[in-house]
Design goal:
By secondary structure, the protein is of the alpha+beta class. 15% of the residues lie in helices and 19% in strands.
Length: 501
Amino acid sequence: MSKRPPRERSTERTERPQRSERAFGERPPRGERAERPQRAERSFAERSDRPQRTERSERPQRAERSERAFGDRPQRAERAERSFGERPAKSDRSRSERPQRADRPTADRPQRAERSDRPRSDRAERSERPANFRPGSKPPRVPPRTPRPEPRQTPHIEEPEKPVVPDVPLPTKVETVVVSADENNMRVDRFLEARYPGLSFSHIQRIVRKGELRVDGKRADSKDRLEEGQTVRIPPLKLDAPKVGTGNLSEAEQKTMAALRAMILYEDADVMVLNKPAGLAVQGGSGTTRHVDLMLEVMRDAKGQKPRLVHRLDKETAGCLLIAKTRFAATALTGAFRERSARKVYWALVAGVPKPKQGRISTYLAKEESEDDTIMRIAEHGDEGASHAVTYYAVVETSASKLAWVSLKPVTGRTHQLRAHMAHIGHAIVGDPKYFNIENWQLPGGLQNRLHLLARRIVIPHPRGGTIDVSAPLPPHMLQSWNLLGLEHDRFDPIENAPEE
């Protein structure tokens, strides 16, 4: 390809018409442009007649570039007004001489809509370029996008259909049943619960109280124990169908189930130990609508069997409550309590300091009923309804001479036994509404006026071998009192430091 000769330039550049004044048709053809003199033929004097442009002090290196393969090419500073006539240098023009933006004609300026018709290059916009982008450099290499992995689909497992339990109560008729060998020595109320899982505790108490249930043709009490071969007459009952599993539980029953689960300290296939909170009754009574025995209704198994209470705690007493989940476990645990092979340890905060600091309390207790309440009184041997009760106690720590932390071990299990015995020796349990009758005694500041009695620990043989050993933490109101009094509950072992027999 032949090299095109350079265009000739006239010696007098000021006579050249301005770009805007030349018509497009007056432009000489390409062939005639070759007759112009060569750029190299122009003398240095002719080029030096141009007005000098103000030199830029910021870029002094420009003058040195004239020696690079350009021969006699003039300096940048000497090329003043190449095609603009007498146009002043850029530095000589004042800012005030420029037309204001508002004075410029807008007709000659292309509109935004016209600009969009121009083809756009493939170069990225300024906002799309990376921060470290330099003009002339290669764009950064962008790794190819990998396809997003599809979410893993878990295989669908069909759940077995749940048995449909009818909501209609199941009517029964009068029945006469014989006590079997497995039911020997079982209480009447436990016997009815085992035979009819849907029967509520209040319903059992009602039919026994009215005399509708007969044992060998005679009236019976709910606490009476049955013997093998006895006949029991069951009156007409209306039983609620037992619930199977937890899928049929209502929203309220699910909350009850969650509350029970939160109380569990120990659980296996046969036994469960709950941390009963203070203020929750174990069994129902007059005016009691929420109790542990009723809450256990939601834990019936597939056969309709409900967990059974093995022993009881007072409503205001907190701590370990033993529950049997099977009939076999209930029989074994009840026998352990009856044979006194179970060991229970209680903690209490009492008024004053008992003397001696370790001792044994042995009295007879009898129930004393009044219109307002029922309490246990100290009775004499031979009194009607009197039962022998034995309690061991030991002082663990004291707070001055006003309060004492005592460890209690009941040998027998009478109603209100610990509360009645501590009041009997003149050191009633703090916060006891029934037995605290000390005159001129004020509760220290910061202590709540609630019963400070905890079923701390229970040790009992497991029905299938081994030992059940469970401890319960202090309830919130007792923990507050222990902290205020500076009693270190975490450094005391309730079994090793338990009172001796």
